[in-house]
TrEMBL record:
It holds the Pfam family HTH_67. It comes from Micromonospora mirobrigensis. This is SalK. It comes from the Bacteria. InterPro entries: HTH_67.
Length: 299
């Protein structure tokens, strides 16, 4: 029987399986069309309204805090004005409709029993998330249960994704870096400024100042290379993120977690094909990913 003896590794592996399921809401044209149908035209209106809708008709400030890596001005351009176009309730219906339509396109060849079992196991894992200190995970976990397997599958993936993201933000805050510094530093390590800077809304001046602060604080060398201290600290952030996200898999148990991984594999593989290779959502590069020049967007 498989064991949870490599809990951090298994936790990260499960993330790479449920994150693509969630990500259809960012990259599939049916998801975009569903937002537009309720008046949320333009990619970023749908993005900010869709992720923020479980919080209710909030202004920009809570979203700046919860989403962490976006420039406050970028968030303020979308919130709270989007709620005049579509209420949170309308937005939630639109995001679920678009996600289900996208997943239906990717899973029509799979047996219904496969989807039902995957939804049940993923939903059980999502039901074990710890809400304390995890705002986005908690509000998604509190949403009504979906009526159909694909709706339940997507909502469970979203709850787990946001729960993990909340833990990641907490680990980043503990480093003492601010959001601009975190994004700028990652783009000196393994990400791409041409995607992340416009996707997060930071100006050239804000970016340059953030890199100067990283040099002063010992995270970048004078020629803007990552220091050993920074690399070790960020590795610790990733490890802390995995530990904080391990609870659902520990509760589900080794055998059923591995079974869920098997069930999600063909679904996640199909979903990855529409995720741009350099998309700023943190997933490892996937073979068959969409073209790298696709619009910079997502989490």
């Amino acid at each position: 029987m498989p064991a949870l003896d490599d809990e951090p590794g298994l936790t990260r592996t499960m993330w790479t399986h449920f994150e693509p399921v969630h990500a259809v809401t960012y990259f599939h044209p049916r998801a975009r069309a569903a937002y537009e149908a309720v008046g949320l035209r333009g990619y970023w209106r749908g993005y900010f309204a869709g992720r923020a809708a479980p919080l209710g008709a909030v202004p920009a400030a809570p979203v700046v805090a919860a989403f962490f890596s976006f420039a406050p001005g970028m968030v303020a351009r979308a919130l709270p004005s989007v709620w005049r176009l579509a209420t949170p309730e309308e937005t939630l219906r639109a995001r679920l409709t678009g996600a289900v339509q996208a997943l239906a396109e990717f899973t029509y060849e799979l047996p219904e029993s496969h989807l039902v079992e995957a939804a049940e196991l993923l939903e059980e894992a999502a039901g074990r998330v710890e809400p304390a200190g995890r705002v986005l995970g908690a509000v998604n976990a509190a949403l009504p249960r979906g009526e159909y397997p694909l709706a339940r599958l997507w909502q469970a993936a979203t709850t787990l994704r946001e729960h993990r993201g909340d833990g990641h933000v907490a680990a980043l805050v503990a480093t003492g870096l601010d959001p601009a510094e975190v994004v700028a530093w990652r783009c000196r390590v393994d990400q791409y400024r041409e995607f992340h800077q416009p996707a997060r809304g930071w100006t050239d001046e804000e970016w340059a100042v953030a890199e100067d602060r990283l040099v002063d604080r010992g995270w970048l060398t004078a020629d803007h290379r990552p220091t050993e201290h920074a690399t070790a600290t960020f590795r610790a952030v990733e490890e802390a993120t995995d530990r904080a996200a391990a609870g659902p898999w520990r509760a589900l148990g080794a055998e059923r977690t591995h079974r869920l991984r098997e069930l999600l594999e063909p679904i996640a593989t199909r979903c990855r094909t529409i995720i741009p290779a350099r998309a700023p959502i943190g997933l490892p590069a996937q073979r068959g990913a969409a073209d790298a020049d696709a619009p910079a967007r997502a989490r």
